């Protein structure tokens, strides 16, 4: 009995080893299984979430097109419940559309790759922004529309972020906080009228922004580029006449 059991066990072990070896060979021939399987690729690129999770900067698939979420506002419509009013930018054409999403509506999010680049210059003839990869010095052209409302904030040697999908750029962003110079600012004349708390000034990039009334022309101020509002003086770069 012991001899019979030993022979049976050896045969069973041999069969298991042979089966495992064959499976491993097939796995290697197929390039490692998960790396080549179609479902693993889609899992890495896409994920489903709901409308309430949509935020500016997300890239989503909708109605057969790929969009970047530019704005997302939560609103309530009485008995209709809450909805998300979104502004979407078609990453292929640059065209913008406005749509409404239910908070529980399924949305397909696309995962993109972020890379850092250095701004070189804007080529107005081609309509592109020329960027440089800081390590390899390779240059790429990115359509101006991909920077959206952040385009005027571009300055020499600024570090910017570019998102890629399947090796092609989908959107580009300037830093959320940048320093701008006040080009023109109205000076309040004492005794004329009550001094307002805020006033509108012209920045060196051509944009206007509301700032505290004490801000003067020539000052360096920090701007939030996402919402386009004044944050503070840039004390590191303030003129000495203002500091003392």
TrEMBL record:
<dbReference type="InterPro" id="IPR013852">
    <property type="entry name" value="Transl_elong_P/YeiP_CS"/>
</dbReference>
<keyword id="KW-0251">Elongation factor</keyword>
<dbReference type="InterPro" id="IPR008991">
    <property type="entry name" value="Translation_prot_SH3-like_sf"/>
</dbReference>
<dbReference type="Pfam" id="PF08207">
    <property type="entry name" value="EFP_N"/>
</dbReference>
<dbReference type="InterPro" id="IPR020599">
    <property type="entry name" value="Transl_elong_fac_P/YeiP"/>
</dbReference>
<dbReference type="Pfam" id="PF01132">
    <property type="entry name" value="EFP"/>
</dbReference>
<dbReference type="InterPro" id="IPR011768">
    <property type="entry name" value="Transl_elongation_fac_P"/>
</dbReference>
<protein>
    <submittedName>
        <fullName>Translation elongation factor</fullName>
    </submittedName>
</protein>
<dbReference type="GO" id="GO:0043043">
    <property type="term" value="P:peptide biosynthetic process"/>
</dbReference>
<dbReference type="GO" id="GO:0005829">
    <property type="term" value="C:cytosol"/>
</dbReference>
<dbReference type="InterPro" id="IPR001059">
    <property type="entry name" value="Transl_elong_P/YeiP_cen"/>
</dbReference>
<dbReference type="InterPro" id="IPR013185">
    <property type="entry name" value="Transl_elong_KOW-like"/>
</dbReference>
<dbReference type="InterPro" id="IPR015365">
    <property type="entry name" value="Elong-fact-P_C"/>
</dbReference>
<comment type="pathway">
    <text>Protein biosynthesis; polypeptide chain elongation.</text>
</comment>
<keyword id="KW-0648">Protein biosynthesis</keyword>
<dbReference type="InterPro" id="IPR014722">
    <property type="entry name" value="Rib_uL2_dom2"/>
</dbReference>
<dbReference type="Pfam" id="PF09285">
    <property type="entry name" value="Elong-fact-P_C"/>
</dbReference>
<feature type="domain" description="Translation elongation factor P/YeiP central">
    <location>
        <begin position="114"/>
        <end position="170"/>
    </location>
</feature>
<dbReference type="GO" id="GO:0003746">
    <property type="term" value="F:translation elongation factor activity"/>
</dbReference>
<feature type="domain" description="Elongation factor P C-terminal">
    <location>
        <begin position="178"/>
        <end position="233"/>
    </location>
</feature>
<dbReference type="InterPro" id="IPR012340">
    <property type="entry name" value="NA-bd_OB-fold"/>
</dbReference>
<keyword id="KW-0963">Cytoplasm</keyword>
<comment type="similarity">
    <text>Belongs to the elongation factor P family.</text>
</comment>
């Amino acid at each position: 009995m012991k001899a019979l059991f030993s022979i049976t066990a050896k045969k069973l072990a041999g069969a298991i080893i042979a089966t495992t070896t064959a499976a491993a060979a097939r796995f290697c021939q197929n390039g490692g299984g998960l790396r080549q399987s179609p479902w693993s690729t889609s899992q890495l690129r896409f994920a489903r979430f709901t409308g309430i999770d949509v935020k500016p900067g997300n890239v989503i698939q909708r109605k057969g097109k790929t969009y970047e979420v530019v704005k997302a506002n939560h609103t309530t419509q009485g008995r209709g419940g809450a909805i998300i009013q979104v502004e979407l930018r078609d990453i292929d054409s640059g065209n913008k559309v406005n749509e409404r999403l239910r908070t529980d509506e399924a949305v397909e999010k696309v995962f993109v790759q972020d890379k850092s680049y250095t701004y070189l210059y804007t080529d107005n003839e081609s309509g592109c922004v020329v960027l440089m990869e800081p390590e390899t010095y390779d240059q790429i052209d990115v359509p101006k529309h991909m920077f959206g409302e952040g385009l005027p904030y571009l300055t020499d040697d600024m570090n910017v972020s570019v998102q890629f999908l399947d090796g092609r750029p989908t959107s580009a962003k300037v830093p959320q906080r940048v320093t701008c110079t006040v080009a023109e600012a109205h000076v309040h004349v004492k005794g004329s009228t009550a001094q307002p708390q805020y006033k509108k000034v012209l920045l060196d990039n051509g944009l206007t922004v509301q700032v505290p009334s004490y801000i003067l022309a020539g000052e360096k101020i920090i701007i939030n580029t996402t919402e386009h509002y004044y944050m503070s003086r840039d004390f590191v770069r303030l003129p000495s006449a203002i500091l003392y």
